[in-house]
Amino acid sequence: MSERERLLVKHAITGRLLLSSAEGLTYAFSREGELTRITVYGVPAGKGQEVVMLKAELNVFRFEEPGGGPVVKHWYYVGDNPVDYDEASGCLVITAQSEIEYRPDQYWE
After folding, report:
1. d(C-alpha 82, C-alpha 55), whole Å
2. Looking at residue 36, what is its pLDDT?
3. 3-state class of 2 per DSSP?
């Protein structure tokens, strides 16, 4: 049983998709106390700058999609935390203040 995972960065107000790991971006998560640091690699300059410009209005979603099992969604709220982009490396770092984990199948049964 294999597990897939994907990442989405969206504009919280309009729901517009800003970044998706389906576009070939790679990412890593790390914990720093109560905060979650999300590092996204390979972000094009225009997209990275746009995400930084909208940093107070971001939602980040991580979907765990186990083969044969229910999807687990993680919603990360950024709030007033730092969002930094390095154009030279294409590295975007989003710091989130909270995480909500849920399984959509539990809401529909």
Report:
1. 8
2. 96
3. coil
pLDDT at residue 109 is higher than 70: no
Using the structure block, give the residue that is written with the tokens 């990275």. 48
Counting the structural domains of the chain, the total is 1
Nearest Cα to 52, choosing from 14, 98, 19?
19
DSSP letter string, 37-100: EEEEES--HHHHHHHHHTGGGEEEEEEEEETTS--EEEEEE-TTS-EEEETTTTEEEEEESEEE
Q: Which domain holds residue 93?
A: 3-106
What's the average model confidence in pLDDT over 62-90?
Answer: 91
* 27-59 tens-digit pLDDT: 999 999 999 999 999 999 999 999 999 999 999
